[in-house]
Amino acid sequence: LTITLYDLAGAEEDRRFSPYCWRTRLALAHKDLAVDAVPWHFTDKDAIAFSGQGRVPVIVDDGEVVFDSWTIADYLDATYPDRPVLASPAERALAKFVSAWTDTVVQGGIARLIMADVWALLREKDQVYFRESREARFGTTLEAFCAGRDEKIAAFRQSLAPLRLTLKDQPYLGGISPNYADYIVFGAFQWARCTSKAQLLAEDDPVFAWRRRLLDAFDGLAGKALGYKV
Amino acid sequence: LTITLYDLAGAEEDRRFSPYCWRTRLALAHKDLAVDAVPWHFTDKDAIAFSGQGRVPVIVDDGEVVFDSWTIADYLDATYPDRPVLASPAERALAKFVSAWTDTVVQGGIARLIMADVWALLREKDQVYFRESREARFGTTLEAFCAGRDEKIAAFRQSLAPLRLTLKDQPYLGGISPNYADYIVFGAFQWARCTSKAQLLAEDDPVFAWRRRLLDAFDGLAGKALGYKV
Q: Which of A158, A165, B2, B209 is within CB 3.0–4.6 Å of B34 for a Cys-Cys bond?
């Protein structure tokens, strides 16, 4: 049975850029579950109204509706315990810390580099919604929010020090193979790669090599996605 | 059998303030192992020369010499597998990330707040060594390195956002009970508490409540240690 995923898309329907949807895409691949990733746009609220809320990822698995990327990962491990585990109970607590670090440091940092680029890739009606909602949240224009990118990239790279240090000694956050913590962090980089030409990582950074391994994982699922070769 | 721990001390021999020695103290308590924590000072290099290196923590367990707090935690789990586990193989990889975050963000941030306070609590000969080695490393005086503390505390508190977010949803990094990841982060706060009156945490911060739980753990082992009620 194929699981349906409502997956955030840009004006081009193949441009799939949500960091949270990427967490779910890789989680589904990790568990070797077939997926039909349906394009969904910011203003397509009606299309997922059946889930009782307005954000993606949403999955439908044999009639079962689950939303929120963390809840989906939990659901997949609970529902398919015989398939590769995303995060064992022991790992889940620490993966929560990785998730909190990603939400604040990594995605918080990347947002200030790419939000104007994201806007440029949306359908016109989504652009209106995105600009209004984000500018209200940030208290400034998208362009001002993303100003001075070259100077900010150095600070962003420095903020990755904990990830860099970890990946000097082991290939994945999960150890010798990736687990859900890796997909959480990777989703943030994939968000940037699918929307922006910004060179977030230096090529000699262990984080760059780790991202490459995940771009190549699952027959290049993430690496083949529409984006920029950065 | 009692394990001997060489434990960094100030001019007062009861002032034990090394963040790495605290990681080991709590690891030993977690595994319910008896310890004789011998005071050791920065310039007592001869006393631990038998370990083949010059830093603490060093433990001696029935003739077995182990140094480096991470290696000690591994040794304790491998040698005493029937006692409460510090970090299962699945948890170890993610605990490495917590350790890297602690070393860079938490301890890096605290250092700029308390290093001058640490200096003031050392024996005179250790003060000379500490000032020279740290000022060479920082490229400035201890006092300049720690200047502007009140302004820096706000930024430090903000840097704890990933920890704060995690502890809003679960009592410990380890989940419903602490594991070695908790002791890694806690050691940094204990380093500050044993040496400085700086109020690192607001009392309504979930991180404050988490620290309180760990100060109270193991019959108040850390809470009873010589330090400041901050």
A: B2
